[in-house]
Batch of 2 targets.
Target 1
Amino acid sequence: MPKVGLLPEEFQRGPSGIDVRKTNFPFVEKLLYCAPNQTNKHMSINKDVKRMTTHVIQSMKEQGEKVTMLTAYDYSMARILDEAGIDILLVGDSASNVMAGHETTLPITLDQMIYHASSVVRAVKRALVVVDLPFGSYQGNSRIALESTIRIMKESGAHAIKLEGGAEIEESIRRILSAGVPVMGHLGLTPQSIYKFGTYTVRAREEAEAAKLLEDAQLLQDLGCFALVLEKIPAHLAAKVAQRVDIPVIGIGAGPEVDGQVLVTHDMLGITKDFKPRFLRRYLELFEEMRKAAQQYKEDVRSGDFPNEKEQY
Ligand code: KIV
């Protein structure tokens, strides 16, 4: 185990060789960096970090270390993902689809997002928890956006918020940032605008839309967003954005040349049975596994096999 606790001269170089005195890391993060005799170019920056912060995420981009993000909506799943070392848990408004069974993300409410977020926060020891501002909770004006953000931060204990859009929501982003809340942007396919797009197909294939996306990415960085999600856009465009902006770009269906990846956990675990877009890699087929387990339980109860003599008092 690397030794932690530093700040005397000889301890001021982090595991990746960054001089932590020159970073804008808060004092507490400096304390989490290991001693120089453990320094190694191939060591992971985030491996020794006890608590992910927006600053650590930024330094991962600077060191070329990929950021991992998955969605979480409840305590039990969040515990598993946090123990697996996932850097960011996104309480996505995709909860509207995968948890509540709605066709779109539009119906989920601010109260419901706060319920999901507070369950996730209770589970997490290390990951950064980012919460989606749901549809209708920020588009009205910047005051509504700030009020919704404050409710999420106060009532759930989350660490940052995410919202969809670029120049159209500039004022809201400014106001949220000026209240001291970290903001993650989201461009490309923005599911809250599904009725404007009409389909869930790849965005920004056309030159004009690609140019607008590049401008919006730059704007989000200039405003002070700490990271940016790019959803379902051509890989070459996502790579261009990731090269142009200094903030971490996290892709979903945006190819490999970005700074990190995000997936909806229920999709990558195969719990959502029929959703199989090209960009998705399924690590398990849990729908089938869980169906079989439930069927076995039913058979065991009916046959009298469960509970047996060891499973009673
Ligand atoms: O709500 C969500 O799950 C998301 C991800 C797809 C990025 O926004």
Target 2
Amino acid sequence: MQKHPDHTPITPTAAIAATTHGWRAKCLQRLVRLDLPVPRTVALSFSAVRSIAAGQPAPAAAILTAFDAAPLVSIRPSPENPDWGGPGTILNIGLNAERHRLLASSHGHEVADALYLRFVQAYAIHVARLDPDMFDVSAPSAEALRTALRAYEQETDEPFPQDPAVQLTQALRSMARAWEGTTARLLRQAKGAPADAALGLVVQEMALGMGHGVSGSGVIQFVDPTTGLPQVTGRYLSQSLGRDALARAAEGTIYLARDPRGPSLEELAPEAFTALIHHGIVCRRRLREEMQIEFTLEDGALKVLDAIKVTRSSRATLKIAVALAEDDIIGKDEAVLRVEPRALSELLHPQVDPRGARDVVVRGIAASPGAAVGRLVFSSAAAQASAARGEGCILVRRETSPEDIRGMHAAQGVLTERGGMTSHAAVIARGLGLPCVVGASSMQLDARERRLIAPGGRILREGDLVTLDGTAGEALAGAADMLAPALDDDFRKFLGWADSFRDIGVRANADTPEDAQVARDFAAEGIGLCRTEHMFFESDRLIVMRQMIFADDAKDRASALTRLLPMQREDFIHLFEIMAGLPVCIRLFDPPLHEFLPHTREGMRELAEALDKPLSDITRRAEALSEFNPMLGMRGVRLGIVLPEIYEMQAQAIFEATLAVGARGIKVEPEIMIPLVSAMREVELVKTRIDAVAAAVRTKRTVQFGYKLGVMVETPRAALRAGDIAQHAAFLSFGTNDLTQMTYGLSRDDAGRFMSAYVNQGVFPEDPFHMLDIDGVGELLLIGADRGRATRPDLTLSICGEHGGNPESIAFCRKAGFNYVSCSPYRVPLARLAAAHLAL
Ligand code: PEP
Ligand code: MG
């Protein structure tokens, strides 16, 4: 004899688990245990559903005996994880001519016709798999019901099944098989389901929300799903079933709590409303979650059909986790684990409201998160003019250079045709907390005509209103609805909890006092990278930097350095004051020349004026300085070796600033970092000179101070020779932007052009400037760390490339025993949370 697949009535003690019967069956059992008025329910296990899909007869008759005589039942899917979906619910199984007749006399013809028609439609489409168009009847009526029954007979050559056991058998089989379909499989695997993910099913006695008295159905939840604040929300619809209230929202919807806009369930059925509020409180406390309860009122009697976790925004996720922990319902550790680190960026910046419409015109790389609305401008001058008029703007450039800094400051967002995750626009925008989309190579930029041609030929002109969504990497036409950032006390409290668990440091990459202030506000534990050349991006300062770069001889250079010294000293004093004794790691100049030379004739002319030199001198010098490959040219420490007075000036400014803030009671031990090192001798030479500057400052001021000297590991050779280099370095900080560039031989500024083709064809799993390449660059990190620590066991190790804020890189660095990670100030909260997750 064939054994029937098993089924279990859900009782408080039945053996039901999410791993054997699915999350819904388990959740319903919890509701039953909590004494909620759940209609009788039977659970079919994963193995039962599997054998039904394989052709075993479903135990329909046996299941039906678990209910009252002649029940109407529903079937709902119950996979192990609610995110994995499942076939749609089927309602009203058991309806037939006889039941229809009884219903007509007990509930009236209208109700009986509507229910039977709905069941025939659902059965025809989902179980018999007939053409949905043939059963698409809008208004229920006796005639519509007859037509549907006739259509069923014609299409199947059989009368509509009348035996409830047959209906149930077929419905169970169709749902079990639907789960095995290719599309369903692909959809759930995209959401992380394993290949062998199984389905459970729950069969539940229907509560009829149609008929006499107060009858209807609805959903209720006790928090606002967008803000996470306590609020009764949901919908109730009289004379409806299942999730009708959600599907047919507009007409006939009744508010739940009292509402001036119309009638409410609270007034209509005060006892049921009070009971629902009570059930909500019980669910929150005992299920340790904010639940959405699906309910039906059957002639005034409340039935709870189901409860699911409230679907919520990231900001609501954090609010709810904090509230649950504060009410001692969950621990702080669990609260911390309930928020995904990446979700935090939604709280830090304005976002496009996901509920609104999206008219996407341009797509590119999502280089800096957040969203902003503004009018299109095609030059930095136009951006500044727009800001002066008090009008928000989105700056569009082929790519940006230091000359655009003013324009970027003035803009609400930046869109570039070229570039990748670590190009100038991306790095600066992340630092400023501006939304930025780069590498939008599918648009054609016509800066002269001040317009851009989007794919498909759509033209956007200067002054057109757009929304730049840096989180999604898209530009949208018009002003989208926005959500404001959510940096409130709960946010700070939550991250404070995260800090109490994490075991790797988090610093910020901060170049200016404004950056440092953001870093402090986000509780960074210091500055891990201050790119000193970035302190000269502002145009009134850029000129002094250029004067130094353009100096023909030592005398000219000395005069430029004399101007730079007090500026640098003031900069460092500011940083030290803001960081109030926290460590500050200052990187000596690393100006890739192409970022600092003027590119246009206009720029050359301005420079000639500022330096009081003939234009021909400037163009000649610019030609002499120009390099074929500036990223591999006279950068970083090479400048320090060839023109030592530049680093000496910086060291002097750092030490004098240290003494200045020391006199005001702020004790600082500055960290000085040498960029782009590839040989130990470079470090030796620079160290000797900086030691000499320190000695000179000490002698002159007769005050003692200490400092640490470290090296940025940005070239593969520096990683390989870290053992030698560590002899002269107290710390090594891995600059994974350049290290990625040099390991792959990929240009940081040009790779955006082909990166999507590479990723789409699976050459690289991800853009390596975005996600640390663990296999290649990561190996260099491990080699560098091991060799460095072999020489100097107390060597401090860190990462300061843009990868420093990625959860995956943080996990890698933590495992390798790094002391801290350093990332853009706006990514510090994410890094703090990601690090806490790793430690829990
Ligand atoms: C790096 O190369 O990783 C780095 C942090 O330096 P920059 O981005 O300034 O070259
Ligand atoms: Mg670098």
